[in-house]
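>> received
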Amino acid sequence: MNSIKEAIFSFPEQLEIVKHGLLSQEAILKEVAKLYADAIMDGGVIYVYANGHSRISVEEVSIRMGALTGFHGIIQVGLTSFTDVVGSNGIRVNQGIERYEGISANILDEYDIGPKDVMAVITATGTTPAAVDMAIEFNKRYPNNPIVGIASKVQSIESATKHSSNKNLIHVIKEASKGIFIDNAMPYGDLSVTVNGQTDTYQVCPLSSIGALSVVQSLNELTIRELDRRNYQHHVLRNMHISNTADNYNEWLQDQRKRYARAMYNPNKLVPQKE
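>> returned
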């Protein structure tokens, strides 16, 4: 008979960290939701950039049941595709691209930014050079537009910088005239559970993705509440699996097309400050 007592299953308890992190930032989240509402009511978009695993937060907010129109994901394949794990699309290749500075300028050249558009940059640690580079480049080009950073506050503050600017995401956001930083509640190092086993000590269960998803969905709720408070009826994608929602689906896509078209060609675009 195995005399070793079965270990306690502890990961669900770690979710309290995310819950507490969200509730403690209620005022900040509501402030961001107002900026999102401003962009939506102006016919514009909220650009949501991420690299690495953080891409799932972009998918969650831009094309998902319950999604509002007006969120435009910025997902660059080389920065987000590593599911092959090894080989030409493996993780080491992806991490190499993440360290390359300058891609963000090429990406932003593809968009016409409007006066009320918002940029949200999502990264687990707040230290990834590609994400920091995007925040720096957007803030340089459009200093009067809001920029939101979603990352680990503790790791952004305590970790050594990797970008040539000697800044992490939190530093860039704090320097921006309209910058707002949201903590994803990730602990330093991300891994939330330590298993002291017989064969070794194992650290598992990262919280960063769950934290970021919780942030973007909290903003989703707060934004539609803010729009409704302003008496503005908006397109929200209904659950297409439980009833016939073709009418809603088509209207939702049509509004997205209008907004995405404006993102590509906006007669009232701002002139970027590139120098």
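>> The radius of gyration is 20 Å.
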